[in-house]
UniProtKB/TrEMBL annotation:
<dbReference type="InterPro" id="IPR020904">
    <property type="entry name" value="Sc_DH/Rdtase_CS"/>
</dbReference>
<keyword id="KW-0560">Oxidoreductase</keyword>
<comment type="similarity">
    <text>Belongs to the short-chain dehydrogenases/reductases (SDR) family.</text>
</comment>
<feature type="domain" description="Ketoreductase">
    <location>
        <begin position="7"/>
        <end position="183"/>
    </location>
</feature>
<dbReference type="Pfam" id="PF13561">
    <property type="entry name" value="adh_short_C2"/>
</dbReference>
<dbReference type="GO" id="GO:0016616">
    <property type="term" value="F:oxidoreductase activity, acting on the CH-OH group of donors, NAD or NADP as acceptor"/>
</dbReference>
<protein>
    <submittedName>
        <fullName>NAD(P)-dependent dehydrogenase (Short-subunit alcohol dehydrogenase family)</fullName>
    </submittedName>
</protein>
<dbReference type="InterPro" id="IPR036291">
    <property type="entry name" value="NAD(P)-bd_dom_sf"/>
</dbReference>
<dbReference type="InterPro" id="IPR002347">
    <property type="entry name" value="SDR_fam"/>
</dbReference>
<dbReference type="InterPro" id="IPR057326">
    <property type="entry name" value="KR_dom"/>
</dbReference>
Length: 249
């Protein structure tokens, strides 16, 4: 993984959770990482924890018109972008018939359209160097049906299709594109939700062959691998990091 040293990565939604873990793992490999997010206070706290190799920029990627200027600013201040991790995303949990058009579109805007626009602008900066790596964060919600998250499921399924289409078009130009589909990843929020619903917790762990939830660092490790030369011949894949949940019974 030493080839990652001194490279530059952008991690959207990098101020907390999986995004923070991804940024931390990339920094541990000697990279400089730009974390993006809407919460400036949270970003500042993350930057302080991650150290001088981390630079935080408060930005709302749903403001599509501002993305070209944002990417140009990063390139001007920090140099060529080597890796983009499209991690930022939102969910909307409601019964199917209660999901409004506005809520559905907001999830698609954040989880799909903003990913497209961010990737397009970053790719423009990668093409002159003939190299680059994009890692999209999908979900097990794209692997099989989950009730009450119709917009999220649609958005993550779109991400997987985009990943394959981007890989076919961009890989001949030296830019690899892959995705990671996390399973149940431990957090205070998931622990609280599952601990309050023993039946659901048993179902989650029962269909996961490894019998446990993953850690955010597991996703960070997968991003490091897909970003490194160890994955130089891997493009267009969706890698489940789920303890076998997607193939469990």
């Amino acid at each position: 993984m030493t080839a990652l040293k001194r490279k530059l990565a952008i991690v959207t939604g990098g101020g907390s959770g999986i995004g923070f873990a991804i940024a931390e793992k990339l920094i541990q490999q000697g990279m400089k990482v730009i974390i993006l997010g809407r919460n400036a206070e949270r970003l500042e706290e993350a930057q302080q924890q991650l150290g001088n190799a981390c630079h935080a920029i408060a930005a709302d990627i749903t403001q599509l018109a501002a993305i070209p200027t944002l990417v140009n600013r990063i390139v001007e201040q920090h140099g060529p972008i080597d890796i983009l991790v499209n991690n930022a995303g939102i969910n909307h949990k409601k019964d199917f018939t209660e999901v409004t058009d506005e809520a559905f579109q907001q999830v698609l805007l954040t989880n799909v359209t903003a990913v497209f626009t961010m990737s397009r602008e970053v790719v423009k900066s990668m093409l002159p160097q003939g190299a680059g790596c994009i890692v999209n964060i999908s979900s097990m919600a794209a692997q099989y049906g989950i009730p009450k998250v119709i917009a999220y499921s649609a958005s993550k399924t779109a991400i997987e299709g985009m990943t394959r289409a981007m890989a076919v078009e961009l890989s001949p130009k030296g830019i690899r594109v892959n995705a990671i589909a996390p399973g149940f990843i431990y957090s205070d929020m998931t622990a609280k939700a599952l601990d309050s619903d023993p039946e659901r917790k048993a179902r989650v762990l029962g269909r996961t062959p490894m019998g446990a939830m993953g850690q955010a660092t597991d996703i960070g490790d997968a991003v490091v691998f897909l970003s490194s030369d160890a994955a130089r011949f891997i493009t267009g894949v969706v890698l489940p990091v789920d303890g076998g949940n997607s193939i469990g019974f």
